[in-house]
Design goal:
This protein is 72% helix and 1% strand. The chain is mainly α. It has one domain (42-432).
Length: 436
Amino acid sequence: MATGPAPRMTPATVAFIATSAAPSARTQSATAGLFATLAATPPFRERLLLFALYLATMASCLAFIEPSPNDVLVGVLAVICLIVGVRFERRFTLPLALLLVWNVAGLIALINSYDAVKSVQATVTAFYLGASALLFASLYAGNTLARLSVTRAGYIVAATIAAVCGIAGYLHLIPGADNFSLYGRAVGTFKDPNVFGPFLIWPALILVERMMTRRITLIDLAVLGTLLFGLLLSFSRGAWFHFAVSCAVMLSFSVLVAPSNALRRRIAGLTAAGVAALAVLLVVLLSIPSIGGFFFERAQLLQNYDVGQGGRFVLQKLALQGILDFPAGMGPEEFARIHGLQPHNVYLQVFMVSGWVGGLSYILLVLSTLWVGLRAIFVRTPWQAYTIVTFAAFFGEIAEGFVIDTDHWRHFFLLLGMVWGLSASTLKESRDLGIS
């Protein structure tokens, strides 16, 4: 006798089977627990997707080689997304259009490039990063909480590995530790301390938010301390500023959306206690000559490479002139080839590389991402805390963009995609709940 495929087990079916025809309360309870577990178990395709997402996120700390293992795994993740049937939401048409205009403008600007190999490589990287942002947006628009939980776990592991390597490199704790430091600064598993520092911020904010609003554990304290110590030893003023801004934004919105006054008081009290504890620890660490001396040197607002001949402010003036002289863009790497360094300002950088059209597209991309993220923050969803943390980290990153070039940072595009994905998921949730 032929049999057809097993019927799909809906939650209603599970509840009916689990609660009917039970011979005893104990058997009924066990049966209900069994069927609830079976219903909660994701299908194989989704488990495969979550596993690939975890591996890709965990490998994101390995950024000292090109292409990185993360790039390969993101490609694998994209293939699995196609197999699983991850959908591209219509809501992502705007970032798709803006990313295309920005990158096509950069492609056209290649006609002004002198070094074809480096310029083409930079352009290909820009297209890949834009595609990865859209991939992440599509991912987090569905099965949101499970995928965010996997990302959180993988990212915290990745950041801890990077931070431990950076700390070991700076303190020379292991043979070959010099590979994890550069110019007397912790660099971890990255090539640049100015990228290493910001990479640690999203998982650090996740831990801070969890301790502020839910519970404090020794493991969370140990991991957070490791990440913040790595951030300190990066000696990146931009990353320090980024963390401070992101923390302020996250805590402010956490207070605003808190469901009770008791939770608001808890956040305020723990924030005050945390700032005091951080200040004490900082004083202790800065009493160590090898850390304190370099810290105070780096903490100065204006240094020689800011205002001296060939400093960043001089380069930024030259970049402004270049934007006027090349309305269609100079192309990738051209400014650095001529002047020796990039202008350390991503907004000048994108106008200079991609021209006025590309630069305006980038500005609109950033502003529209902020807008959709801000709207999603105030909708109460199971992932609201993730939305706040991701928005805060992205806000800090675009603020840091005024002093550094972030247009090729992988975690910038991860955050950008996450904001759009969470926004789309929140919109669907609010419609299901009848929230206007």
